[in-house]
Design a protein that fits this description.
Residues 7-61 form the HTH lacI-type domain. The protein is an alpha/beta fold. It is 43% helix and 16% strand. The chain has three domains: 9-61, 434 Repressor (Amino-terminal Domain) (Orthogonal Bundle), CATH 1.10.260; 66-166 and 301-328, 3-Layer(aba) Sandwich (Rossmann fold); 167-298, Rossmann fold (3-Layer(aba) Sandwich). Strands 2-1-3-4-5-11 form a six-stranded parallel beta sheet, sandwiched between helices. The chain has a six-stranded mixed beta sheet with strand order 7-6-8-9-10-12, with helices on both faces.
Amino acid sequence: MEMKKKATIVDVAKEAGVSVATVSRVVNGNYPVKPETRERVQAAINALQYVPNVQARELNTRHSSTIGVVVPGLYNMFFAEVIDGIEKSMRRQGYSLLLNCAQNDPELEMECINALVSRSVSGIIVISPNTQGLREDFYRRIVKRVPLVFINGYHRIPNVSYVANDEALGTRQALEYLTGLGHKRILFVRGENSDSYTVKERAYRAFMTERGLFDEGHIVDIGEGNNIDTVTSARIKLMKTIPTLDPTAIFCCNDLMATGAIRACKRLGLSVPEDISVIGFDNITLSKLVEPQITTMDQNMFQLGSNAAAVLVEMIHGGQSKRITLENILITRESTGPCKIPE
């Protein structure tokens, strides 16, 4: 079947009875056009099903309508919900997203960002950047070329905007909740290559030390914390750790780890929360689908994304960098309960 020839800007101009320049002005919105002329051009565009050449338009206006987004992985629903907030906010502003996945690899993260810069995106949002694993000067150089926003990034770099939950405070709130239930032997489960885990670990160390409860052996690193194997990795690691350390509660840095922790407890014949409590972090959809439902800290994922998008648009238009901090909310469900062992 012969493909229908695509309409061009010249076809639209002929159909509307105007010049090519007038059609360009209507499409780009960069010059005033009489309302009746605009309506005639728009009618021609609709009739011919004309689709403007975005690249040509961006060359003409010297403005890219594409935003780069770098994410550590695609298997954790936390990132999907943050991206949803970014996309909806950016779409209202006329921008589209170009998504890159860094696979929790600092070197690949740099490659992704360099690739986005080479594509002349208008700005870049990096979700949970691994700034500790990068050369100190990398982001300093990047932000001189393109506006940059970190979501849940904690390495302070001049002129980079930050939108984050107060994960340190959220960790303390979760631990206060557990100790309020009588728990003292609380495991801390984390992954690798993420500033977020490090921030939470520092808060855990400080909180437990203040109460004389800290034990270095209670920190459990499962390795990769944001991919399809995270649940299994957490389960396998904790099935070896729980019998030795005999905790009464487990704090997990995200809900994938918490799901793995619950599975480990079940395999070991422990009832959650009667024998052991499990608390997660993020409040992804999965936390409501597992049995028992997971008590967790809500990170306001959609708001993280939409706030980051708003800040980036401001920076694109010449605004200053900002730091925005959102509060976590404790969501109490079925996976936590009073400590039954007198301590």
